[in-house]
Amino acid sequence: xxxxxxxxxxxxxxxxxxxxxxxxxxxxxxxxxxxxxxxxxxxxxxxxxxxxxxxxxxxxxxxxxxxxxxxxxxxxxxxxxxxxxxxxxxxxxxxxxxxxxxxxxxxxxxxxxxxxxxxxxxxxxxxxxxxxxxxxxxxxxxxxxxxxxxxxxxxxxxxxxxxxxxxxxxxxxxxxxxxxxxxxxxxxxxxxxxxxxxxxxxxxxxxxxxxxxxxxxxxxxxxxxxxxxxxxxxxxxxx
Amino acid sequence: xxxxxxxxxxxxxxxxxxxxxxxxxxxxxxxxxxxxxxxxxxxxxxxxxxxxxxxxxxxxxxxxxxxxxxxxxxxxxxxxxxxxxxxxxxxxxxxxxxxxxxxxxxxxxxxxxxxxxxxxxxxxxxxxxxxxxxxxxxxxxxxxxxxxxxxxxxxxxxxxxxxxxxxxxxxxxxxxxxxxxxxxxxxxxxxxxxxxxxxxxxxxxxxxxxxxxxxxxxxxxxxxxxxxxxxxxxxxxxxxxxxxxxxxxxxxxxxxxxxxxxxxxxxxxxxxxxxxxxxxxxxxxxxxxxxxxxxxxxxxxxx
Lengths: 239, 303
Hints:
The complex is a heterodimer.
Chain A: H1 4-16, H2 20-41, H3 45-71, H4 74-79, H5 83-86, H6 92-123, H7 129-154, H8 158-176, H9 178-182, H10 185-196, H11 208-231
Chain B: E1 4-13, E2 16-26, E3 29-34, H1 41-48, E4 56-61, E5 64-65, E6 76-79, H2 91-101, H3 106-115, H4 131-143, E7 149-152, H5 161-176, E8 180-185, H6 188-194, E9 197-202, E10 205-210, H7 212-220, E11 224-230, H8 233-241, E12 246-252, E13 257-262, H9 265-278, E14 283-288, H10 293-302
Parallel strand pairs in B: 3-8, 3-9, 6-7, 7-8
Antiparallel strand pairs in B: 1-2, 1-4, 4-5, 9-10, 11-13, 11-14, 12-13
Helix pairs in contact in B: 2-3, 2-4, 3-4
C-alpha cells in the first residue's frame, strides 16, 4: 500500500517548491505571536486558548493542510508529470495512500510541533492546554490532508477552493453559524482537545463520539474517492 | 510478438469528435502516426497508453485491455509530448525513480541512461536540460524496464537535426529488435525517414495506411493548385488548357491572376515555363496555393 519511491518524489516536490515557504512562514508567525503575547500579558490560560484555538487550530492547521494536501498531487496533475507515476505497474490507490501519508506527515510536522512550542511559550502547558491543542492539530492534520488531497485530484484550482474552505468555512462561518460548526474538522478535533485538556476552557460544539466517527469516515471516504479519481484520471492537454 | 489492436474506436470530448471509428493494428517494427495538428493523434496515443478511455470500441494489447490496467505498463514504455518532468531531480535520480516504480534497481537505470547516451549529464538537474536532453531522459525513463511496446507522442518536436538523427537511429534499432514502436508526427519527411509503416489520421479519421512509397504516391499524384500572374493571363490560360496536364483554369479577375489545377505535377512544371517562353509571356507569380499540409491530408481522406 505504501511505495517509498512515490513518497520520496512527493516529499521533494512538496518541500522543494516555493509554496513550501508558507509551510515555514506560518509556524514562525505563530511562535512569534506566542512570544509577543507572553511578553505583553504574561502567562494566561484563556489567552493561550484564544491564540491556539483562534490562530493555530482555526487558521494555521487548515492552511498547512491545504498546502501539503493539494501540493502532494495537484501540481503533478496540472503539469502532466503525474504520467510518469501512472504509467507504471503500481496500483493507483497505492499512489494515493502514499501521497496521503506524506501529506499527513508534512501537515503534522508543520502544524503540531509549532502548536506545541507556542503552547509551551504561552502558558507552559498549564491545564494541559499545549498538549490538548497539539493532539487536536495532529488529528486535524490527518483529515485535512485527506480532504485536500482529494481536492487536488479533482480540480486545478484546489488551492483556491482549499483556502476558501479553510478560511471562509472553518474560520469565519464556523464562528458565526452554529450549524456549520458540526461540519467542521476544526470542531471535531476540538472535541478531542476538550477530552485531553483539564478544566473547561476548551470547548467543542460536537460530542467526542460523533467527532471521532466523522473524522474517520471523512478521512476514509475522501481517500477512497481520490484513489478512484486517479484510476480514471484523464490527462489534461487534450484538444 | 506484441500487437496493439484498435477496434472501431471513437473518442469524443463533449460535442467534438477527436477520434472517429478507427480500426488499426500496430505490430512490431516502427510505425509512424502521421497527421496534421489537431487530427486526433494525441488522443489516439493517449488511448493506446491507457490515459484515456475510448468512448466506443476497444484498445487492447495482445487481447488485454489497456484502460484501467496498471499491469499493462510492464510491457509499455511511454514518452509523453508534454515537457513537464520532475525538474527538481537530476537526470539520474529521475530515471532511477522510474526504474524503482517498475520494481527494478539502479542497474536498469544505468543501462537506460547509457542507451540514450546521457551519462555525461546525468548528475545535472533536469531543469537545466535542453529540449533534446529532456527528450533523451524521457526515452531512458520509458526504456528502463525493457518494454516490448514504445509509444512516443511527437518525439521530434523542437529537436535540432543532430538530436533528431540520434533519436531516429535509436528508434530504428528498437524496431529492428522486434519491439513495437509507434511515434506520432505532423511532418511527412520525419515519418518517411523512420517508419516502415505509416498510418495517416486526418480530422479524427483513418485516412490511409501503408509503407511510405504508397503514401508518397498518394500525395504526389494528387491534383496541384497554382496561383499564377503573368503579363497576359488569358493568352497563357488558352495555351495551357490545350495540354492534358492541366485540368482546369479559372481567371480570377479580382485577384488579377489565374488559378490552375494541374493533374500531372511533373509534366506541368516543365510545360509552364516552355509555354510562357513560346508565347512571349512573362510570368510574374507562380505559387502553389495548396501546399499546406492540411490540403495534402484532405486530399488523402478523399482518396
